[in-house]
Amino acid sequence: MTPEAGGCDAGAVSNEPSHSASRHLALDVADYDAQIRRLVPYYGDLLREGVAVMKALAPPAPRVLDLGGGTGALAEAVLEALPEATVTVLDVDPEMLAVARGRLARFGGRAVFVAGRFTDALPLSDVVVSSLALHHVPDIAQKTAIFRAVNEVLYDDGLFLNLDATMSADPALTALAYDHWLREMGARGVGEAEARGYFAAWAEEDTYLPLADELAALRAAGFPHPECFWRRGPATAYGARKID
Ligand SMILES: C[S@@+](CC[C@H](N)C(=O)[O-])C[C@H]1O[C@@H](n2cnc3c(N)ncnc32)[C@H](O)[C@@H]1O
User: Within 10 Å of residue 224's Cβ, how many Cβ atoms?
Assistant: First the structure.
């Protein structure tokens, strides 16, 4: 899922000579943020809910890893809300990372950038977060492997938090979630045909799994008490603490 239906990196940074790089980055961030709010219901709520859970459960001065951090929206929310936190933004796309770098420059050394994949060796962390990124993992077996790797790099009492779209094992309930998504897009001026076009484009690279499967995968990966913290339509904040 991406504001540009063509792919996560499409249009992230352009090379028009008439604008300064920093102005470009600012425009890209503003465009991206506006678009994602148009297309993804409750995106702002998801970030707020995630940050609230983190504030409640993270240790002091947490080392946070943001998987698929993209343009840095979640990292920015974390860095603002937790003044002692440091955030490593990991993303496979160097153009997204360039935008995140510009957006997070004001936080200095509290924001670190890593070009890499979810499946690469991950840094030890107090909190691992992700927003709208792990739906790029195509099946539950690969997702379970990533959850296991996350569990291994979390310190004891660490927290994993995923903010993403989830569906249901019951097709009727999945249909309801898509109806909800359509309604919310409609309320932001996205007509049904355009919305269905986005769904079709995203379906080529995104997989929204049943929430029950996500929670079961977390349990299989070594998190004893996975939990859904917040859900509205497809928008879901879920995760678990690492407990021995
Ligand atoms: C829809 S964007 C979401 C970005 C950001 N978290 C947000 O909330 O706006 C998904 C991000 O995941 C990244 N991504 C996709 N597959 C990845 C992978 N295998 N490893 C690391 N990053 C990946 C993309 O490059 C993109 O920046």
Answer: 11
